[in-house]
Amino acid sequence: MRILIADDEITLLELIKQSLLNEGFSVDAVSSKDEIKSYLDSYTYQVLVLDRNFYGIDIMNEIIKYAKNINQNMGILVISAMSSVDDKVSGLLKGADDYLEKPFDNKELKARIYALSRRFISNIYNFEDVSINLETKQVRVRDSAIALSRNEAKLIFLLLSKRGYIFSRDEIIDSIYMYPEEILSNSVDELISRIRKKVNPRFIKTIKTRGFMID
User: Fold this and answer.
1) Tens digit of pLDDT for each residue in 4-45?
2) Are 152 and 158 in contact (CB under 8 A)?
3) Any residues with CB less than 8 A from the CB of 88 and at least 6 apart, and which?
4) Cα gap 59→95, rounded to integer Å
5) Helices (H), 55-104
6) What is the pTM assigned to this prediction?
7) Alpha-carbon distance 6 to 50, whole Å?
8) Rounded CA gap, 153 and 146, in Å?
9) Which of 23, 38, 91, 203 is deepest in the core (most CB within 10 A)?
């Protein structure tokens, strides 16, 4: 899952970014209104975490409209020290999908992000020339259906179940094999190599020393 964080408090911005990176998310962090728009124009995000006030100016309404015009399927979580009931209601009425008051615990922030990603996930996942229907479990490349082995399909849909999360080899083995204790860790690498040949070499990312993910 790719997340954009926007906050004018640089120290807090870096702390949030590092916390989400540790969770396995792909994260971009920006600290100005112009940067927010530039990144929204350049990349596709599943969730935008937006500070309501930038240098004393409430930018929430402007940025929500801009973001939703680009991508209706992006969840927007507003974070703000403006924490009265009226503040929260106004935020939600202006298009925020969730509202979290400052200060907050990072565990709650992560939970809110996961909840938003579930709400806005599409049944169709597209990557370059690859299209995957999460409901029918069909994988197509350039409009042609691709035949996958049972374990190849299991692995793809495991990684897609938590986009942006880095699955270790052990997690993959435990999840897709009936007798994981009999499986060597390099079996995962071989399986991913076969998928890349059938689907797209860049479809599954290797995160050095950590594991694999689909963004």
Assistant:
1) 999 999 999 999 999 998 887 888 999 999 999 999 988 778
2) no
3) 99, 101
4) 13
5) 60-70, 85-93
6) 0.61
7) 5
8) 10
9) 91
